[in-house]
Amino acid sequence: MDHKGVKAITHASAFFAPFLVPLLVWLLMPEREIKNMALQALLFHVGIGILISISGIFSYILIGIPFLIIFALVGIYYPIKGVIYSLQGRPFHYPIIGSLIGH
């Protein structure tokens, strides 16, 4: 089964439940492909959250502002790209994390 909707919602969860939805999908879905995608999304959301938090702290000394902008844009761009790829039925892997988790 394709599960385009589950994949799209998992990627889109970055905007409404970035940790809960990928975790539930990873725990509840039996297909290995869906589990890998959900784990990638979860790790990406956690990583971006940490990077944005650190950049926010460093923004008080001004060095974090460019990083905050870059990480925020990355945190918006890749989930949207994942949703589009999922709806088109194309494979999508998050940068860096996709190669660590495997295909």
Q: What attributes characterize this protein structure?
A:
0% strand, elongated, mainly alpha, 103 residues
Structure description:
The protein is mainly alpha-helical. It has helices at 4-12, 20-28, 32-58, 64-88, 97-101. α1 (4-12) packs parallel to α3, α2 packs antiparallel against α3 and α3 packs antiparallel against α4 (64-88). The longest helix is centred in the middle third of the chain and has 27 residues, at 32-58.
Task: Please sum up the structure shown.
With 103 residues, the chain is mainly α.
Itemize the secondary structure elements and their pairings.
Layout (H helix, E strand, L loop, with lengths): L3 H9 L7 H9 L3 H27 L5 H25 L8 H5 L2
Helix pairs in contact: 1-3, 1-4, 2-3, 3-4
Tell me, what's the shape?
elongated
| Number of E strands | 0
Oligomer: single chain
Number of helices: 5
Spans of at least 5 consecutive residues with low confidence: none
State the major sheet. Answer: none
Q: Which class of secondary structure composition applies to the elements?
A: mainly alpha
Report the end-to-end length measured between terminal Cα atoms: 17 Å
Q: What proportion of the residues is helical, as a percent range? A: over 70%
Radius of gyration, whole Å = 14 Å
Order of helices and strands: HHHHH
Average pLDDT for all residues: 89
Sheet-strand content, in percent, reads: under 5%
